[in-house]
Design goal:
Blueprint (H helix, E strand, L loop, with lengths): L12 H5 L8 E3 L14 E6 L3 H16 L3 E2 L8 E6 L4 H13 L1 H6 L4 E6 L5 H10 L5 E3 L7 H11 L3 E3 L7 E3 L10 E5 L1 E2 L10 H4 L4 E2 L2 H13 L4 E5 L16 H9 L5 E5 L8 H8 L7 E3 L7 H6 L6 H14 L4 E8 L6 H14 L4 E5 L17 H24 L5 E9 L6 E5 L4 E4 L9 E9 L4 E5 L5
Parallel strand pairs: 1-8, 2-3, 2-4, 4-5, 5-6, 6-7, 9-12, 12-13, 14-15, 15-16, 19-21
Antiparallel strand pairs: 10-11, 17-18, 17-20, 18-19, 20-21
Helix pairs in contact: 9-10, 13-14
Length: 480
């Protein structure tokens, strides 16, 4: 069973860029018998960074670990296995993880049997694997996004060999169905509908770390959602880097709008999806969204910039005008829709005029929220080589101006619900102020007074007051 991991090297960004036209096979995950009981009387802790894709992956790793007998713990000093599931999207995300890897060394000093692993997007970069090998000798496991299903085997080998286990693939493999998920919530679930990304926006490392776009079979997704509904889940979020490209790689005539329509028929109260790409968001999808029902009236539609010149340099494949047209169409067919976005400022070559175009677009769309970022060059992506001609002060100042406008949008988006009665999925009790909180159909956070027994239910709340980051509500009906 044991492998000679000294023969295995890290990934190659160049190979990861390749897109080989081949059919992606789907296989079923099965637990290898020799791994049963590997985690008996042992505990694990997974630290997750980055996007919902990573959160979903962590749930799968937790599922595998629990199947092997490991129990979860929150306490580092007590853990037998600690995994860092990492994000590579910006430099800051990476520095934080390297800091953590350094810090965790002292825990290992007290517990030499502790196994520490780094996985997720960072190990998909050659330079990260090399740095970990050279500078972090206390890290025992290094694997990537394409091989989480082999976690049990890696742990087995690490226990057996006491050597560093490093295995990262550049190329995506098969689609693995049936990995047991240990979901973080019992009412809200992530459901991957596809993996990877073929967009190659020039700033983005995701197509390299997550590989070629590949869609799960519709039957597998529909069955998973039906099963979640049977188990009492209230909300499902469909995940993909570009959900609107769903189905393009399947040899059947079935698109994202077909999938959405099939899921609309299932009796589960709420369906959300992320992330959408403005170019691929099509009329059929907007029409299915307009049917309402369990499809929530919120869309996260990353625009990145409002300048056509910058959009072109980013390889986004749409113009400001085309984006605005889609927004208009969405608002026409779904009048109450809430639209949120992602925006990057300080992309190489962004002039004051380009930035003004972004502010203009933000005003025109009336975004009700946004994640805003300063461009972070990622080694191996085309934009990392573009000439940087902006000083950091200008970038920070632009980010501040943009955030001010975005925050006005958050407040306006919340204010439109004042006095209205809305449906809220109750998520939990805040330790700080003893208030319950949950999210509306439009994805707005509401705090309110109520009994803990409401957690997990969808209830009616009247909105009393809107603030920038949340709403304050009051229960209108007896839900007991
Ligand atoms: N620098 C800054 N922001 C980035 N994003 C992706 N790559 C970068 C980068 N190199 C942002 C985009 C994307 C979001 C998930 O992260 O806005 O939509
Ligand atoms: Fe990155 Fe663009 Fe793919 Fe989104 S669509 S993950 S921004 S390459």
């Amino acid at each position: 069973m044991e492998k000679d991991y000294s023969k295995y090297f890290g990934p190659s960004m160049k190979d990861a860029r390749k897109r080989i036209n081949k059919n992606i096979e789907t296989i079923r995950y099965e637990l290898d018998e020799h791994l049963t009981n590997l985690g008996k009387e042992k505990t694990y802790l997974i630290k997750t960074y980055g996007c919902q894709g990573n959160e979903a992956d962590s749930e799968k790793m937790a599922g595998i670990l629990q199947q092997l007998g490991f129990q979860p713990t929150e306490i580092e000093e007590e853990a037998d296995v600690i995994l860092f599931n990492t994000c590579a999207i910006r430099e800051t995300a990476e520095s934080r993880v390297f800091g953590e890897l350094g810090r965790i060394k002292k825990i290992k000093r007290h517990n030499p049997d502790l196994l520490i692993g780094i996985c997720g997007c960072m190990p998909q970069e050659e330079k990260v694997v090399n740095t970990v090998k050279e500078k972090y000798p206390h890290i025992d496991l290094v694997f990537g996004t394409h091989n989480i299903h082999k976690l049990g085997e890696y742990l087995y080998d690490a226990y057996l060999t006491k050597e560093k286990v490093v295995e990262v693939f550049s190329e995506e493999g098969k689609i693995i169905e049936g990995i047991p998920s240990k979901r973080a919530h019992d009412r809200k679930a992530w459901v991957n509908i596809m993996y990877g990304c073929d967009e190659f926006c020039t700033y983005c490392i995701v197509p390299y770390t997550r590989g070629k776009e590949r869609s799960r079979n519709p039957e597998d997704i529909i069955e998973e959602v039906k099963e979640l509904a049977r188990e009492g889940y209230q909300e499902v979020t469909l995940l993909g880097q570009n959900v609107n490209a769903y189905g393009k790689d399947l040899n059947i005539d079935y698109t994202f709008s077909n999938l959405l329509l099939d899921l609309w028929k299932i009796e589960i109260p709420r369906i959300r999806f992320t992330t959408s790409h403005p170019r691929d968001l099509d009329e059929d999808t907007i029409k299915v969204m307009a049917k309402g029902g369990n499809i929530m009236p919120h869309l996260h539609l990353p625009v990145q910039s409002g300048s056509n010149r910058i959009l072109k340099k980013m390889n986004r494949k749409y113009t400001k005008e085309e984006y605005l047209e889609k927004v208009e169409r969405l608002k026409n067919l779904i009048p109450s829709i809430s639209i949120t976005t992602d925006i990057i400022v300080g992309f190489p070559g962004e002039t004051g005029q380009d930035f003004e175009e972004t502010l203009d677009l933000v005003r025109k769309v009336d975004f009700e929220g946004a994640f805003t970022f300063i461009f972070s060059p990622r080694e191996g992506t085309p934009a990392a080589k573009y000439v940087e001609d902006l000083d950091s002060e200008t970038k920070k100042e632009r980010l501040q101006r943009l955030n001010k406008l975005i925050n006005e949008g958050y407040l306006k988006g919340n204010q439109r619900f004042e006095g209205m009665t809305v449906k809220v999925l109750v998520e939990g009790l805040s330790q700080k102020n003893n208030l319950l909180s949950g999210y509306t159909e439009h994805n707005k956070l509401v705090n309110f007074e109520g009994d803990k027994s409401l957690i997990g239910k969808i209830i009616d709340l009247k909105i009393e007051k809107a603030y920038t980051w949340h709403l304050r509500g009051i229960i209108v009906k007896d839900h007991s």
